[in-house]
Structures are given as structure tokens and as C-alpha cells.
Design brief:
Distance between the termini: 22 Å
Largest sheet: none
Length: 106
């Protein structure tokens, strides 16, 4: 909700809380997806790069990882691949959020 409302301060707080309270490698798929989206929204490119490798191994998380990499590297082709994957998985709301996240400039 904080992402969709543009409340970046709240996003920062939530990411910090996740890092403190959720052991690495144990969060749910949706938590990991929200985490990478938060990193993108905050323009934290090095952390995006660190996170995406494992996300690419999950069919559900792959489009989130692709979108994060696309934004971090300003790669329109990769962004299109992410949108295609979101659509293929029926994740239309997440696809619709892509323009919001892709406006981030690292």
C-alpha cells in the first residue's frame, strides 16, 4: 500500500523492519516481491542487483526481478519481458504498477 501511495518514507521503514525481523531466505514470495519493489522505488540499485539473482530462479518472482533489473539498468527490452511475464502469470495489477516503478532514476 505504501508503494502505491508513493509513501517512500514508509517504504523505507517497512524495508528496515523486514531486514530486522525476517531471516534471510525465509520470507514469503509476496514479501520478497514487495521487498524488491521497495528497493526499486527507493532507487537502491546495488541492493537490487544483490537480490535479483535468487529471485530469477522462481517463476513467480522472475517478473519482479526482471522489472527491478530493467529499472536499475534503464533497459526497455528487459522491462517488456517483465511485463510479458506478469501478464502470463495473470499478475495484471503488478504489471500496471510498472510505469510507477520505471519512473525511478538511479
Amino acid at each position: 500500500m505504501a508503494l502505491s501511495r508513493g509513501q517512500l518514507g514508509r517504504v523505507e521503514e517497512l524495508l528496515s523492519a523486514l531486514q530486522e525481523h525476517v531471516p534471510r531466505g525465509r520470507p514469503s514470495l509476496t514479501t520478497r516481491a514487495a521487498y524488491i519493489d521497495g528497493l526499486v522505488a527507493l532507487g537502491r540499485a546495488p541492493e537490487v542487483e544483490d537480490e535479483v539473482e535468487t529471485l530469477l530462479l522462481s517463476p513467480y518472482l522472475e517478473p519482479f526481478a526482471l522489472r527491478a533489473l530493467a529499472v536499475a539498468n534503464d533497459d526497455q527490452e528487459l522491462l517488456e519481458r517483465a511485463l510479458d511475464r506478469f501478464t502470463a502469470l495473470g499478475l495484471h495489477w503488478h504489471a500496471a504498477q510498472t510505469p510507477l516503478l520505471s519512473s525511478v532514476r538511479y
